[in-house]
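Class prep. Write one:
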Amino acid sequence: MIDLHSHILARIDDGARSIEESLHIARAAVADGITIMAGTPHVRDDWPTDPSLMEYRVAELRAELEQAQIPLDIVPGGEIAFEWLKRLEREELRRFGLGGNPRYLLVETPYYGWPHYLEEQLFALSESGITPVLAHPERNADLQARPQRIVPIIESGALIQVTAASVDGRIGRGARECGIQLIDRGFAHMVASDAHNASVRAVGMAAAVRAIGDAELATWLTWGVPAAILGDTPLPPRPAQRRQQKWRDRLRRV
């Protein structure tokens, strides 16, 4: 699997607090079946990460992983707060390109409220040649109440990333229900860990794959689309879902 959203980089945001914690997350990722992980530190008011620091931490962790003989490839990125899209210069945004691809950018969904200009901002980003990847929208209460809100965002050119811990229920029923709805309705393009540490924000990608219950679809979400982003190739077509059972019925069994 490829995980394009994590906070594995040490001493840069609210994720790993030390190189030892970074290595702990890395070992857990490898055990979970992940071969490539993006370090995507927050870029927002409480964590105003500079792209140079992100790049330094990526190089630092790569060296530590090689020394520890942990077979995990770390690629760069950043999780950009919505409000910061206009604050950063275009070159800075491209340096935060997801997986090192300057044509994709991970954008953090607001946790509260649903700004009416969100669609407009993401469309403007797409028009500039950068595809937004909207991170964990299923955790937003407004979207949980009306998942159809995501449709104009997708139509504006954005991709949608759902968090693994939402899909398997580790961070609550609301996020789980919304996350599974987004996947079942074809509104999600990627599942990623958003791993911060070894507790509830741990990796857990394999558990999410099991919760999806469709091997071909899960592979598309955790390998096909992320690999296309890394390789800067066209996204593979979404496979037809083999499981047609309604998400509500599936949730009752979880």
Notes: Confidence is low (pLDDT under 50) at residues 244-248.
